[in-house]
Amino acid sequence: MAGKKVSMAHWLALALAIVLVDQLTKWWIIGHYRLGDSTYVTSFFNIVRAHNTGAAFSFLANAGGWQRWFFIGLSAVVSIFVLWMLRSHSSQKLFSFALACILAGAIGNNLIDRVVHGYVVDFLDFHWSFLAGLFPGGHFPAFNVADMAITAGAVALILDEILRVRRSK
């Protein structure tokens, strides 16, 4: 893609690929694990089945149910805004990569999971003893492919802004 203009379709294809991987992994977990089941993989990593009705780190998880519809609506608005931004900036590769990742995460976690299940399916459980002061038993909150995409998108947005500021000097 170096030297070529990248169309919005490329970024939508990336987002679709991420959503497909996210949903396939979640459906595999749902088909093979019951809520709370865990498989030891390494001394610092397990595969688990966890449900999150809240946002990041289970924020608002016990809010009574209204948060499901709030997150669905918020994700729909964010997705429309991201699509508009992608259309306007598809030639900006790092920025558009970030947007495609964020779009995929929003669709995978907040639109599909919350509409279909009423919660987000998480399954990656990393744990280290040095985290025990921050998280119970040193277990970082379980997460999924969509969460990784959102995180990668956020990092890419920050990097894009740093590079943009440096170029403007």
Protein model, in words:
- By secondary structure, the chain is mainly alpha-helical.
- The chain has one domain (40-168).
- Helix content is 57%, strand content 12%.
- It is built from four helices and three strands, in the order αββααβα.
- It has helices at residues 8-32, 66-89, 93-116, 145-168; strands at residues 38-42, 45-52, 120-126.
- It has a three-stranded antiparallel beta sheet with strand order 1-2-3.
- β1 and β2 (45-52) form a beta hairpin.
- The two termini are 27 Å apart.
List the SSEs and their pairings:
Blueprint: H1 8-32, E1 38-42, E2 45-52, H2 66-89, H3 93-116, E3 120-126, H4 145-168
Antiparallel strand pairs: 1-2, 2-3
Would you kindly provide a brief summary of this structure?
The chain has 169 residues and is mainly α.
Strand order of the largest sheet: 1-2-3
Integer count of domains: 1
SSE order in H/E notation?
HEEHHEH
Note the beta-strand portion. 5-15%
Query: If you compute it from the alpha carbons, what radius of gyration comes out, rounded to the nearest whole angstrom?
Result: 17 Å
What's the helical proportion of residues? 55-70%
Which regions have little confidence, pLDDT < 50, spanning 5+ residues? Answer: none
Instruction: Give average pLDDT, whole number.
Output: 89
- Contiguous helical run count: 4
Number of strands: 3
Structural class: mainly alpha
Terminal-residue CA separation: 27 Å
What sort of overall outline do the alpha carbons produce when their principal axes are compared?
A: globular
Major sheet:
3 strands, antiparallel
